[in-house]
Amino acid sequence: MKKFILAVLLTAIFSSPACYAGTPAVEQGRKIFVKYCVKCHGEDGSGSEYGRYLKTNPVRDLRTNRLFLSDSELFIVINHGASWREMPNWEYVLSEEETEHVAWYLRTLKFTPDPKEGERIFKDKCALCHAPDGAAKKIWKAPDLDSSALGPFEMARLIRYGIHGTLMYPREVLHTNAEIANVVDYIQRIKK
Ligand code: HEC
Ligand code: HEC
Asked: The domain containing residue 59 runs over which residues?
């Protein structure tokens, strides 16, 4: 039963909601995306060659947006851009309705997690503190992640932004959205 609920949850997060896909608003959003966003974000949202080498910060993989951004945050970041980074603000280019359409379109993008990559990242970057036999687990009191109560959305955000003032520092710059999505997928799968 637990596996089934998890599968439904992960499917709901990573795949496109049937209610959006194919609607006129989403089709409108796709056109806006192609016109204004593809240059940096790439046709599939994973990031263009140009976007990946942007300084100071590269683009973020938009296929994972449902894991990191609530509806209102998605709207806000498109409207106002990301300060001090290359993500422009679109409030003077797009109407409110167009911003909503492109946001809905982003919600239909798909990301398929790679369980092997998730496991590799966990073992390389997290196991030291979190694995039951992790060398630093006792010293730093890192919790067992296989019994974490956090769902994918809370967990992904926590990993990206960290827990202030603890050894769980932010991974916002160290890991891409896709890497975080892969490790979250792995942890959700090993949950007891
Ligand atoms: C000039 C390049 C560029 C263009 C054009 C651009 N973006 Fe971005 N975008 C970025 C960068 C760089 C980031 C990452 C900012 C950061 O580090 O937080 C980003 C981040 C985002 C995010 C936040 C993703 C996350 O995980 O936090 C969203 C959503 C987004 N862009 C949507 C759009 C949409 C929609 C358009 C078109 C209307 C667009 N972008 C056009 C460069 C661009
Ligand atoms: C240097 C040790 C260290 C490393 C490395 C580390 N963490 Fe943590 N992590 C912690 C500590 C300590 C906490 C508990 C912080 C607190 O709330 O006091 C924590 C908390 C967490 C939580 C919250 C768990 C819950 O249920 O509350 C998650 C999720 C998490 N870490 C994921 C990761 C992932 C994924 C990685 C690898 C990318 C990672 N951590 C790497 C030390 C670490």
From this structure: 17-107
